[in-house]
What we know:
Elements: H1 3-12, H2 23-30, E1 34-38, E2 43-45, E3 54-60, E4 63-69, E5 72-79, E6 84-85, H3 88-91, E7 99-102, E8 106-112, H4 113-122, H5 124-135, H6 161-166, E9 179-181, H7 186-196, E10 200-205, E11 208-214, H8 215-222, E12 243-244, H9 250-260, E13 264-268, E14 277-282, H10 283-290, H11 294-303, H12 307-326, H13 331-357, E15 364-369, H14 370-373, E16 385-389, H15 394-418, E17 435-437, H16 438-450, E18 466-471, H17 473-487, H18 491-502, E19 526-527, H19 528-546, H20 555-565, H21 570-594, E20 600-601, H22 608-617, H23 620-631
Parallel strand pairs: 9-10, 12-13, 16-17
Antiparallel strand pairs: 1-8, 2-7, 3-6, 3-8, 4-5, 4-7, 10-11, 13-14, 15-16, 15-18, 19-20
Amino acid sequence: MNTIAEHIADFLKEYPPFDNLTFQELSDIAINIRVINLEKHTVLFQNNDALHDSFYVVASGVINLTTIADAEETIINKCHEGDIFGLRPFFAKNNYMMTAKAREESIIYAIPIAVFRPFVANNSDVLNFLLESFAVNSRHTKDSVNSNGKVISDTSFYVDQQSEMQYIQSLSYNNSPLTTEANHIVKDVAILMTESMVDNIIVCEKNKPIGIVTATDLSSKIATGRYPITETIDKIMSSPVVTVIENVSLAEAQLLMLKHNVTHLCVTKDGTSKSAVKGIISEHDLIVAQASNPGVLIKEIKRSQLPKDLKQIRDRLSDLIQNSIQKNIPISHISNIASEINLAIIKRAVELSILDLGSPPARFAWLSIGSQGRKEQLLLTDQDSILIFEDVTPEKYRETKDYFLRLAKRTTAILEKVGYEYCPNGHMGSNMLWCKSLTDWTKQYNSWMNTPGENSNDLSSIFFDYEIIFGEPKIEEVIENVIFKNAVNNTLFFDFLGNDALKKNSPLSFFKKFIVEEEGPHKTKFDIKTRALMPLIDGARLLILNANIKGIKNTYLRFKQLAITDSKNAEIYLSCAEAFLTLSKFRTVEGLKNDDSGQYINLREMSKTDKEKLKNALTPMKDLEELIKSKFQLTQFS
C-alpha cells in the first residue's frame, strides 16, 4: 500500500462509520480515494447539480452546507475534520439539494460509492450509522461520543428535527402491483407491462413472490439477445425478491435498496416471501416521499398564495402526524415538527393579509397564545392570538388600530379556512379587546397581575403562553419584561394563578375510577383536556413564572427546566413531564381517530393496558397539587 493511502486509512479509522471496518478494509477503500484540495470559497457541489459518484469526508478545513430559499442563502451546517457529507447519492436519484462550499482552504477525501457500497451491505454497524445519520443527524467523533456536532445529510432543507421525520415517515406506494406466473412467456409479459404503463412485474407462485422483472431486465437480457423473447419469464427474473412489511419507513426502504443493490422492494403481508403480495415500492416512490418531508412543506407554505393551498399542507401535516404516531416516534419529536409547520402557516396567513391590505402603518407583533404559543398544537383545534402594535401619536391611533383590526380579521379568516376554528371565547387579534398598542397592552398586563381579583373575568392564563409569529421581536421582549417584572414577589398574582391551577375537576374518584361526563353529548366519556392536561399546563406555567425563568413556554420543557432549577422536587417535575407527553399522545390519537379536538376519550374503546397507562399518567398530578399548595399562599381566592 502506498504512503498516501496508508495515511488516509490511519485518518479514517478514528471516525465512524470507518471505525467499524478492519484496517485492511480501510486500506482497500483508501487506495480508491481521491484527495481534493479546495481553495477558500470553492464550490464542491451546489444545489441542483447532478449527483457525484462519491461521498465526502473532511480531512482538514471547514465546509459550509447551505440552501437557498426565497433568494436567501442560509448556512445549514459546518463540516469540520472527520465529518461526512454528500451522502445523497446513496439514497436518491434526484439532484443535490444543498451547496457545499469551502469556508477556508480545505482538503477533502472523495470516497467512491461503488467502492464503499459492499462494506455498507456487509456490515450492519456501518449500515446503522448511515441510518442514524439520516434519522437523527448526530455526529460522533474520536473526542466525544455525544458531541454537539452533526453528521450532515444533504437531503433536506433543515438538518434538525425536520430531518428526523423525513426518514421515519411512512411510504405511499403502489398497492395494486402487476403480477404474473413463472411459466408465462416474456413477450406476453412485456406487452402486459407496456399496456399497464409500468416498469416492473412481480412473478408469483400462489400469490407469493418468487421473483421480479423490471424494464432493465428486458433491455439487458432480451434486447441484447441473451434470451429469446419466447422464453418463460422465470428465466430472466431476479430472485429472490427483497421483501418488506406494509408500514416500512422511508429510511428502512432506502437502506434495504442500498444493501441489496435493487431498485424495487416487494411489500408482503408479513414482510417475508412466504406471505401474499401487497404492493411494490420503487425508487420513484422514495423520491416522492422525500418531497413530503417537513422542510419541503415549509418551503411550500412560503410559496402559498391561497388559503386552500395552506389547507392542503395542513392536511398533509395531519397525515404525517398520524404516520409518525403509528411508527411510535416520540411525541416530543412529532410536536416539535408540527409546531414549526403550524407557526409557518400562521405566519403565511399574516403575510397574505398584508399583501392584500398594503404595508402596515406601524411596526407590530402577531403573537399566538395558548396551545399554539406553547407549541403543543398537534390537532386542528381553535386559534388563539393577540396583536400588539407600537405606540403612535393620538391623531394616528384610530387609523392605525383600524388597519390592524382589518389585518387580524383577514388573518383569522384565512386560518379558519385552513381548518383552525375561531376561538369560542374570542381570544383573537381580530377582537378589538386583544388588538391594541404596546402601551395599552402594558397597562393590561399590569392590571391583570397587580389586581387579579378585579380583572378575573377577562384574565385567561393562556395570555401568559405566547410565541411571536410575525413582526417586531422587541415588542414581544417588552411584554415579557413587563410580565416578569410584575411577577417578582407578587403574592396576590400567584395566589390567583395557584387557585386557578387547582380548580379543575379531579380525573379520578376516591376509588381510583375515571370520573366521566354524566350528561350531554359526551356522556360516559373522559375529558382528558380539562381533567388531565390543563392541571399540568397550568401548574407548569405557575411554577415557571414564579421561578422567574424566561423564554420557556412549552409545558414539557417547563417541567424539565424546573427539575434542574429545583432539584429537591426534580422527581415530581420529571414525572409530570412524562405524564404530559403520555396524555398528549392519548389525546392526539383520539382526535385523529374521530377527526376532532380529541378532548373526550371513549374509555369503552380502550384496551385494559391503555386504560392502565392512562391512569398511571394521572398519578403525578396529586404530587403536583401538594407541591403547589406548599409553595403558595392560596388564601384570598380559595
